[in-house]
């Protein structure tokens, strides 16, 4: 049975207050948290609700007064069958991208980054195409950084993908013919705004090379926004399915769902699969060490339907920004050690043996208990950077190996399934999760109203 907790009323209701504190404590103690998000987490970022009459949709209608299109039609793959609806789609996306570009990540996006920095985030999965998670510091699945560059089809590097973009990314474009991907530039936006797609530079280069040697010209594809429409498969669907199955096998100990109405079939399945894995992660009977594990928390302004009774443990009724702020405040008072800045001794490359420097480093103990330094230092991780170097200390005989080196020896990164033969063999027997993408775009595909980034 889902327990509902009213975030606003919690100051006056002591029972809600206690339960909310225990949820904060659970976040502070869990180590493998999966977060699933929808449009609601971007509403506070200034991204307009384009369903409303003064929203972007109205602007597009101004540009195309004779075109009658339902909002949903603007995001259905069938729009490409008609040149006018294709033009409307491009114009609409260009205007949406401009307003997304002027938005900033919300406290909820930054909370995701904090969970990652504190080694608590197993993975974030989002329905949003705005890329605000990446701007908050999480590498997204559409990012170049997350892909291996080799021959043939690029593959996602699971360990680098911190945020899986279930519906693609408005900040990238993809060739309709050869599938080459590029960051979306101002030039692309200008083309889209006029309703005409730019040509693909890779196709154009291949064709030009043939013409140069007097061969026949090749077809040149056009670039389109790299977002996933209704009734079209996700180009990275197989890779995303593999990442999901890896995450489920890792036994996540908490599931947080924020800012989504839970109406879309594919997303509902994702929630149910992860909720089951989270509930199964609780040992029976629960041990003291695991007493915080196994909770499924849903943070949204509206309640989940009754079909979620056995799946969602807690519904936090309210705004996700306010809830994450409360969690962080509670976490800081419950486990201040997680937030301390401390000084450590570290030998610097190039120093004579025995020379130590004092470097300042934010503590990074979460998730590393008993396995100190499991991960390699990573420049992207905000709390790993030494920030100050002061006077060398007097020499001390033979320093131990540096923390960096120890990390390398012990490094056994969770989700890099390609590297370890042991893990490879485990992978072989892996259940092949079929990642269902159809009809997943944007939130509410079950009605025919205009789809909305802010549909919650
Ligand atoms: Zn191309």
TrEMBL record:
Sites where the protein binds Zn(2+): 175, 178, 200, 203
Location in the cell: Mitochondrion
Pfam families in alphabetical order: SIR2
Signal peptide positions (record): none
Top-level lineage group: Eukaryota
Compositionally skewed regions (Basic and acidic residues) per UniProt: 428-439
Keywords from the UniProt entry: Metal-binding, Mitochondrion, NAD, Transferase, Zinc
A GO molecular-function annotation: histone deacetylase activity, NAD-dependent
SUPFAM superfamilies: DHS-like NAD/FAD-binding domain
GO CC annotation: mitochondrion; nucleus
InterPro entries: DHS-like_NAD/FAD-binding_dom, NAD-dep_sirtuin_deacylases, Sirtuin, Sirtuin_cat_small_dom_sf, Ssirtuin_cat_dom
Disordered, as annotated region: 366-456
Residue intervals of the Deacetylase sirtuin-type domain: 13-330
Residues forming the catalytic site: 167
Keyword set includes Mitochondrion: yes
The UniProt record lists the keyword Transmembrane helix: no
UniProt record similarity statement: Belongs to the sirtuin family. Class I subfamily.
UniProt protein name: NAD-dependent histone deacetylase HST3
Organism annotation: Grifola frondosa (Maitake)
Gene field: HST3
